[in-house]
Amino acid sequence: MSDQDIKKSYENSAKKMSGSNKTFASKLTRDDTNDPQFHQDIHSSIQVDYNDIEKCPSMEQVQKWQREHVSKGDQSKEGYPLNVIIDPAMREMYQVTHNAGLTNVFDRFSQQQPIQCKFCIEGLSCQLCANGPCRINEKVPRGTCGVDAHTMVARNFVYRHVTIGTSANIFHCHQAARTLRAAGSHPESGLKIRDREKLEKYADMAGLDTNKSTEDLAVDFADWVINDIHGPYHIPSKAVEAFAPTKRKKLWKDLGLFPGGGYSEIAYSQTSCMTNFRSDPVEFLLNSVRLGIANEYQGIFLLDIIQEILMGTQQISMKKQNMGLLKEEMINIVTNGHMPLLAHVAIDIASSDEWQQKAKAAGASGIQILGHVCEGQQLINYEGTHNQSSYAGQEGEWLSQEYLLATGVVDMFMFDYNCTVPTMPLYAERFGTKLLSTHPVIKLQGTDTLDFIPEKMKEQAEKALQMAIDSFEKRKSENRKTYIPPHVSDCMVGFSTESVRNALGGSFDPLIEQIANGNIRGIATIVGCTTARFGQGGSNIFKITQGLIKNNILVLSGGCTSAVMEYTGLCHPNAADEAGEGLKAVCKQLGIPPVLTYGACVDIGKMTHTAKELADALDVDTDKLPLVIGAPEYLEQKAVADACTAIALGWLVHIAPVPSITGSDVVVKTLTETTETLGLGKVVVELDADKTVQIYIDHIEKKRKELGLN
């Protein structure tokens, strides 16, 4: 067959499958790709005007406006997106990019609305086999293979969300364990073990011999974690056995939910999702809970512990957040993602006189490293990084990254997995930013990628710093226009199980006493992401949190929600004045805000740890606590896996927007009712902020009554 015949057969096949001999791909132009090699004229083709925008007033006035704005409830389609963007820096930089005609996240959301598929929204679309894609409705109740709506929705839930989210968190833990091992076995790596006490505590719980040197114990504990992750699914996980609540473990075993090795559990679950394998929707959903347990104890809980061993446990302090921390005359490095493993070594090295002098030799006043998204929330909390001289603060939530590069002063955007959007090469090309991936699991077109080799982290960090210096020199030589939104928020950070307990005098008894006497009615964790949706964009998170603290509910935040809390002032001790009288009195006494930021989305593992210790202090199972888990603007797969963790621990989980489960009443009933009858938690979906607050209050009061606290 000639090349021409091959091409013709392709076109004929396309016509038979889609009805057109021209595929969509053939209609794409270079403007439709994110590959920077096709956009080398972007400097001249995209004109940016930093002056033709409405600039925000002082932070004090901004925070007053934020409260007035969300109280009106006008975060709808009309006036979008400025009516949902409440971060002042993003408000300004959105106008810059939009006016220039640059693709950006809020404009792309608007463009998607006419074509978003209602079948996918409800979980009623399947693309697993060549008979599809199949879509189910009332006239066509089964796919070609015979699958019904209930199986399709439940299978999509596991396959598209829970397995991917669980694998991402376990993969993160695996990389952290590799790094801990390198810290113990390769002193030349630049890695440090900053918390020997924590290493010894958890190694002892794992049953390891702690009468060893710090380095040898680090290697042993890292190997123990890695071996458990790689264990077979039919052999019970040692990590779950060592660290999970005792009462929960018995329930999980009775229900057949006690997991084995995390990677093997994911493989088992993915296999069950193959075409014509499993068809019981309830079995899929229980499998999701089992994955949620692995997600916690072989994922986010252990990775938090390991990163604290390496970077230092959280320390409560006042820090700064937002784009005003960028400096025109500084070499600005922004590190983005969720794995601050190379970043913390880079901060350590950049803080040395040697590298500050290198920066000055290049014409800069110095070199500073800022965190962004969840990586920034971790760096701002770890004692070993946030007190380093080159560390400058936290930048923002994931929605802001394109706008961040549009300032023109980010010399390097250094990223690991995940939440680095595919358009970053376009922005880097237009605004002169050097992009550098620090892990091969994430690669963008036209960018450099470092292999993740923990044993060579010092060498890799130095390479990254030199790239940033070179990028700064190029920025200055080209004399590019720049603009830095001047907005900065002061926020109290560094909360964790240990730092909260230490602030209470070494025991959780004072907190339990305040819950018992009703000054604090309960605890809500507001965690996860922000979305670009109407009514959200951070505004839904803010409004719900305001309602909770007014009703004397203490809020813990983690993820991009923490950025919202920071730029709205809710992480400042002054926010105690916005709380109900009971919570206000407690916050004033302790000098803390009514919202305690635990850091990143992966730091939910620390929140579950705090909850476990509270349950142990009360001698109750975790499902008895006056506690609600909320993800009011969840975005992606890890959030769904984390929701399954919360269900496993017996908690009410609020999710918005509505996940792709509404195509099956069996799936909805199972997740919102049946799981609770088994001693597990349940899911509630609600978009309205006021109704959401009332759901939280009612559940917390129900749990208080069950504990005899009313």
Would you kindly provide a written description of the structure presented here, covering whatever features stand out?
The structure is a single chain. The chain has about 700 residues and is of the alpha/beta class. It is built from 29 helices and 16 strands. α8 (about 195-205) packs across α9 (about 215-230), α8 (about 195-205) packs antiparallel against α13 (about 280-310) and α13 (about 280-310) packs across α28.
Question: What tags apply to this protein structure?
Answer:
Substrate Binding Domain Of Dnak, Chain:A, Domain 2, Rossmann fold, six-stranded parallel sheet, 10% strand
Structural class: alpha/beta
* Percentage of β-strand residues: 5-15%
Shape: globular
User: Any idea how many domains?
Assistant: 3
The CATH topology assignment of the largest domain is Rossmann fold
Percent helix, as a range, is 40-55%
Number of helices: 29
Strand order of the largest sheet: 6-5-4-7-8-9
Mean pLDDT: 95
Unreliable stretches covering 5 or more consecutive residues = none
Whole-Å distance between the termini? 81 Å
Give the beta-strand count: 16
Task: Tell me the CATH architecture of the largest domain.
Answer: 3-Layer(aba) Sandwich
Q: State Rg.
A: 25 Å
Summarize the main sheet: 6 strands, parallel
Can you tell me the CATH class of the largest domain?
Alpha Beta
